[in-house]
Design goal:
With about 80 residues, the chain is α+β, with helices and mostly antiparallel strands. The protein contains 1 helix and 6 strands. It has a 4-stranded antiparallel beta sheet, with no helix packed on it.
Length: about 80
């Protein structure tokens, strides 16, 4: 086998072995806490889509079914909302 071809085969092998290893090393995650319920009221969700946390620990939840973003403190207490119907 030519040296260039051998190098390409080795690079391909290493590339795929890293991908396979990362796929096989799946991690499982659990949640620490949860709050809210299904609905349209404050602290309720209908099709939550995304979540973000700011530097102060406030949690923002994109509530796509209610067209709003809700803000909670780090303990899960409702603070405010943006948007809505």
């Amino acid at each position: 086998m030519k040296p260039v071809r051998l190098i390409l085969v080795l690079i391909t092998f290493l590339f795929f072995s890293v991908i396979v290893e990362s796929v096989l090393a799946n991690e499982t995650y659990g949640y620490v806490t949860q709050w809210g319920s299904i609905g349209t009221g404050n602290g309720q969700f209908f099709m939550p889509y995304g979540i973000a946390v700011d530097a102060s620990g406030n949690v923002f939840v994109a509530d796509s079914g209610n067209n709003r973003i809700q803000e909670f403190d780090s303990d899960g207490n409702y603070q405010s909302q943006f948007g809505g119907r």
